[in-house]
Amino acid sequence: MTEWFMCLFSRTLPWSSVLRVWDMFFCEGVKVLFRVGLVILKYGLRPQVLKRCPGMYETLQALRNIDHGVMAEGFLLFQV
């Protein structure tokens, strides 16, 4: 799972956020990667977004179009 999360975050997050997540990963371990994933899901799929997603396909499309503010370094790391 760790390799998958590292690959996922490096392809979707802004580079400054990726570097901070990696720093935290090297200092604190694997739990950081799961926390980052949970924060992205929590704030990327807010209730108003989920109301527009009746099925799995729509939910995955919503995850592909997460607001950049959620993935910004300052917001993401503060929530983690």
Automatic annotation (TrEMBL):
The record ties this protein, via SUPFAM superfamilies, to: Ypt/Rab-GAP domain of gyp1p
Q: Which organism is it from?
A: Homarus americanus (American lobster)
**Pfam families, per database record:** RabGAP-TBC (PF00566)
Query: PANTHER family per the record?
Result: RAB GTPASE-ACTIVATING PROTEIN 1-LIKE, TBC1 DOMAIN FAMILY MEMBER 10A
What's the gene?
Tbc1d10a-L
| Gene Ontology MF: a single term | GTPase activator activity
Name this polypeptide is given: TBC1 domain family member 10A-like
Stretches assigned to the Rab-GAP TBC domain: 1-29
